[in-house]
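Let us begin with a simple case.
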Amino acid sequence: MNLGVTISLTLYFVLMLAIGLYAWRKSTSNSEEYMLGGRQLSPAVAALSAGASDMSGWLLMGLPGALFVSGLTQSWIGIGLVIGAFFNWVIVAPRLREQTERYDNSLTIPAFLSKRFPSKALTLRSVSAIVIVVFFAVYTASGLVAGGKLFNTAFPDLIHIGDTSAYQTGIYLTLGIVLIYTMVGGFLAVSLTDFVQGCIMMLALVVMPLVVVFRAGGLDVTAERMFSVDPNFLSMFHGLTVIGWLSAVAWGLGYFGQPHIIVRFMAVRSVADVPKARNIGMTWMIISLAGAVGVGIFGRSYVVGNNINVADPETIFIVLANTLFIPLITGFLLAALLAAIMSTISSQLLVASSSLTEDFYRLFLRRHASEREIVNVGRAFVLLVAIVAAIIAKNPDSKVLGLVSNAWAGFGAAFGPLIILSLTWRGMSGAGAVAGLVVGALTVIIWIALGWGSSFLGGPGVYEIIPGFIAAFIAIYVVSLMTPTKDEFRPLTTPAE
C-alpha cells in the first residue's frame, strides 16, 4: 500500500475512533443516550447523519456503476430519491419527533408503534423487530460488499488475515473499525461520525467529476467521447419504458420506511429545528447525488478515451481515484468511500441492535433490566448482527446496488405506509397496522423470490417496492375500516420542555 494512501486512511481511522471515545464519555450512561443520543442532535448533525447513513457505498459505487453502464437514464433513481427525501422531512420528521417523545418517550420504531396501537402492542413490536433485523442483515451486508470491493480493487496485494482474499480482508477491516466506535460510543458516536463522513463524501463527489473533466480536456472532449460510446448515452429517456421509469422514481417511496434514517428525526433537538435540518439535508443530498451522476457519466468518457479496463463498473470511483490523483489525495478519496460505507453500516447495526434490545431482550427476557445492562446488551447485539451480515457478504460477486434495492424495498413497503398513516390518520387500527406491516414485507419477499423485479408477465420487471407499498397501504386502510377501535389514538399530553 502506498505511503500517502496509508497516511490518509490511517488519519481517517484515528478520527473515527477518537469520535467514538468522545461519545463514550459524553453519552452512554443510559439507554436513551446510547440509542438516541439523548434527543439532543443539532440540525446540522441530524441532517448530515440522516444523509450519510442513507446513501452508503451505493452513492459512490452502486449509482455511478449503474450510470457508467446505462447512461443518464439511471439518474431517475436519484431524482426519485430527492423527491422522496423532501416529503419524508415534511410529512414524517416533525410528527415522528413529537409523537415518539409523547408516547412514553419511545426509543425505537417498534416501541412507538406498540404505544400508538396498544390493542396489538406485543404483535407489532415483535413482528416489526423481526422485519428490521432481517432486512438490516441484508442491508448491512451490502455495505460490507462495498468495503470488500474497495480493498480488493485498490489494494489487491493487501496483507491478508490468514489465507483470506483481499476482498475478505476488506470486509474484516471495515467491520472492525465500525464495530469499535459503534459499540463504544453508541448513537452519538454514529451521528457525529456520520456528520464528518457526510462532509468528506460531499467534498469528494464535488472534486472527482471536476478533475475527470479537466484531465479529459474539457467538457467538449468529454461529451464527444460519450457520444462515441453511445449517441443516446446522455438521454434521460432513450429506451426507458413507463414501467422502467416508475421503477426508478419509486425508490423515493422507500424513505418513509427506513428505520436508520427516520430514527434521526426522533433524535433531533426539537421540532422547531426540523425545517433547518431539512434545508441542510436536502442541499447536501442534491449536491452529492449530482456528483455521483458526474462520476458515472464522466468516468465512462474518461476510461473510453484512455483505454482503461474497468472489470466491475461499481468500482469506477476507485479506478479514477487511483488513476488521476497523487497518493495522498487518493487516500482521502478512498476515505470518502469508506465514509459512505461505514456511516450506513454503523447506523444499521445500531438500529437493529436497539430493536433487539428494547423489543426482544427487555420485552421478553429482562423487563426490569438496569440501564447499564441494557447498554451492554445493546453492544452485544451490535456484534451479533455484524457477524450475520459478514456471512451474507462473503460472496465477492454480490452487487451492491442489488442488495441495497432489495433491503430498501423491504423497509419501504413494510414500514412506509405504516409510518405515514400512523402519524396522520386517527382511524387507523392496531389490526390494520399489523396487516400493513406483514403484507408489505411478504409482498416484497415473494416478488423477489419469483424474479418479477427482472421480468413481469413476459415484460420488463417492476421494482418490488411498488406492489409492496400499494398492497400495504390497501391492507392498512381496509383492515382498519373492518376493525375500528376507540382507544388507538389516545390523547397526547404535552411533553416537558
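The second case is a distinct protein. As before, the sequence precedes its C-alpha cells.
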Amino acid sequence: MLKLLDVICNLLAILAGTYLVAIMFGIVFQATARSFNHSGSSHIFTFSEYGLLYIVMAASPGLSG
C-alpha cells in the first residue's frame, strides 16, 4: 500500500511540474502575441490562475515524506 502511495505522489509531482511548464509557455505565447498586435487567447490567464492552485495541491503530498 505504501508503494502505491509513493507512485501516486510521484505522478502528482510530475503532473505539477508539467502544468508549471505549460503555464510558462502559455505566458510566453501571450506576451509574444501581444507584441505582434494579436489578441492571443484570453483563456491563458484562467489557465494560469487555476494552474497555480492545482500545482500546490498536486505537489504538496510529496513534501511531507
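The chain has one domain: 8-63. The two ends are 15 Å apart (CA to CA).
Keep these points in mind for the review questions at the end of the chapter.
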